[in-house]
């Protein structure tokens, strides 16, 4: 996980509509950048839908939400449409951003060891500096946790 106080690595990735989005596009706004393992899975769906429900409150506080996984643009589009998600889902099929944010880790699931995205959320300030970092977050609780972090 990247350290609080460090500059967030720049990136440019396609969203669910194939439009390129860069971290630099959001200068002057706080960015909630959350990394999740996979579209349409139980935990990821809970997390995305909760971010969607709270999205107006994030916007009121001058923050945007960006979700990142290694799923394809097409997969993200289906996920967005099925659940009516109001924020960009960024496709990092090459895992370059996932690796630059240090969220590609060894995971143990039912005794089996594999590599995967560890659910991690960063709060990045208006100048591109990481001001909060949460790893191994609980999917359903993370959006409310991030709303609280914005109030601090």
Protein model, in words:
The chain is of the alpha/beta class and 152 residues long. Helix content is 30%, strand content 30%. The chain is built from four helices and nine strands; from the N terminus they run βββαβαβαββββα. The protein has helices at 42-60, 73-83, 96-100, 142-151, and strands spanning 12-14, 20-22, 30-35, 63-69, 89-91, 104-109, 112-117, 120-124, 130-135. Strands 5-4-3-8-9 form a five-stranded mixed beta sheet. A hairpin with a 2-residue loop joins strand 6 and strand 7 (112-117). It is globular, with a radius of gyration of 14 Å. The mean pLDDT is 96.
Please give a handful of descriptors for the protein shown.
152 residues; alpha/beta; five-stranded mixed β-sheet; two-stranded antiparallel ribbon; 4 helices; globular
In short:
The protein has 152 residues and is α/β, with parallel strands linked by helices. It is 30% helix and 30% strand. α1 packs parallel to α4.
Q: Order of strands side by side in the largest beta sheet?
A: 5-4-3-8-9
Number of strands: 9
Query: What is the number of helical segments per DSSP (H or I, 4+ residues)?
Result: 4
Order of helices and strands: EEEHEHEHEEEEH
Strand content: 25-35%
